[in-house]
Design a protein that fits this description.
By secondary structure, the chain is of the alpha+beta class. About 20% of the residues lie in helices and about 25% in strands. The longest helix is centred in the C-terminal third of the chain and has 15 residues, at about 225-240. The chain binds succinic acid (SIN). The site of succinic acid has 10 residues, from strand 5, strand 14 and strand 15.
């Protein structure tokens, strides 16, 4: 377990962008192979701030992948096809022909798989002139700010997480939802596990802190009905996304966000109906939550 010590940074500059989470990092050129000392400080900044941002980067799918591979193996999306030449890179594209966007509800990535993604790197390729920002929320704070009684109850609870459980999909499966839309390609998940049971409060394997593990994929609580689960789920989602737990990032082309799915949720804002937004996403494998 990595101990968080407030060491000064020697290789990077870290500027927090909000009170609860999020920091912009200055210094590294992510297209270059970075020395371990720089990577160590980036890891420290990620663990301290949960989501970090780099601007002015010149990344191709190949160099973005090379940077991502320094953090672990690449997690493939069970439902969405990657780029033809780079299957590990998911192009998130929304054009004026698309009404809904990808990622437009609060979630952490691939929470429904047996080993949800540890981290995600999202690179801005084409950004609307206004809009298309992304929000993140701090799930450590969401857990720690609950009453002791609620924390005790949640500590023993398991949740059922489903890949096809998305409130903004109008009750449709992903396949039905994306049918006839050309901007993103859906694939059959095949044998990949897309329904998993995980603890609703998870312990971060590197910081040892507990975080509320809720999000759009959490369908109901184990040993309860969906009707019994719903009021508590609604409360937890509303609580976890209180504005004071969040940060918001204004994208530019050449910006990269790197977030820790083990202690955050995120939400892509759909407020640019007449413009195109293109992002390249790479997701890094994680562990089974405990
Ligand atoms: C996602 O959910 O990974 C997409 C986030 C975004 O496009 O801002």
């Amino acid at each position: 377990m990595l101990e968080i010590v407030n060491r000064p940074y020697r290789h990077i500059e870290v500027n927090r962008i909000a009170g609860s989470l999020g920091a912009e990092i200055e210094g590294p050129d992510l297209s270059q192979p970075l020395p371990d000392a720089v990577l160590g400080e980036i890891r420290q900044a990620l663990l301290e701030n949960q989501v970090i941002f780099f601007r002015g980067q010149k990344l191709t799918p190949a160099t973005q992948l090379a940077f991502a591979r320094r953090w672990g193996e690449i997690h493939l999306h069970p439902y969405m096809a990657g780029m033809d030449e780079f299957p590990e890179v998911l192009e998130i594209r929304k054009t004026p022909a698309d009404k809904k966007n990808f990622g437009g509800s609060w979630h952490s990535d691939q929470a429904f798989t047996a080993k949800p993604a540890m981290g995600t790197m999202l690179f801005g390729v084409e950004i609307p002139s206004a809009g298309g920002d992304t929000l993140w929320t701090n799930l450590y704070l969401a857990y720690e700010s609950l009453s002791p009684g609620m924390r005790r109850m949640l500590d023993g609870l398991q949740g059922v997480y489903r890949g096809d459980n998305f409130s903004d999909h109008d009750g449709k499966t992903r396949k039905e939802f994306y049918k006839g839309k050309t901007s993103m390609k859906v694939v059959d998940p095949g044998q990949t596990q897309t329904v998993s049971v995980h603890p609703v409060v998870r312990t971060h394997p590197e910081t040892g802190r507990k975080a509320l593990f809720v999000g759009g994929h959490l369908h109901y609580f184990e040993d309860m009905t969906q009707a019994e689960s719903k009021p508590l789920l609604d409360f937890l989602m509303q609580h976890a996304t209180r504005p004071e737990f969040t940060c918001r990032f204004r994208w530019q082309s050449g910006a990269l966000a790197f977030w820790d799915n083990r202690c955050t949720m995120h939400f892509a804002i759909n407020d640019y109906p007449a413009e195109t937004r293109v992002m390249h996403r790479v997701t890094i494998c994680g562990d089974a939550p405990f």
